[in-house]
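Please, structure for the following, as tokens.
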Amino acid sequence: MAHLKQLKQRTRADYPYIREYRTRWSDNDMYNHMNNSIYNFLYDSVINTYLIENCGLRPASSPQYGMVVHSHNDYFSSISFPACAELALRVNRIGQSSVTYEIALFEKGQPAVKSVGEFVQVFVDRETGRPNPKGMCDEMRQGLERLLVPQAQSKI
């Protein structure tokens, strides 16, 4: 993952896939900003939306699915209801059975990134719960490669 200074400079142009999320009153915590746990829900949602739309994932029946094995988030400024969030997604690394995502959260109409997170998923076989020795299926890999940022892969 990039250094904090680099992450704070991220723009929407750094991400090939963006989806909007309308914040809800219940997303706010007692400090009047979106609760930290909501960020992880949103990150997981944008990833799975992409996998369903572009990688052939069928959550209830696909022979392989991704399990999150690592996640973290760097917060730069807050967002709160009734703002509209924009969730931006890219892939920084693809392994044999794993993928490293970078997710940024922006507030619609504002240029500065609010937070940047990282999720690592390992794709496992539904029957065994273990990674397939041959790696992730071709359809999944090809879909993820469309989000791969080449310079990010080469820095790892």
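The beta strands are 17-22, 64-75, 84-94, 98-107, 113-125. Helices lie at 4-8, 36-54, 138-145, 150-154.
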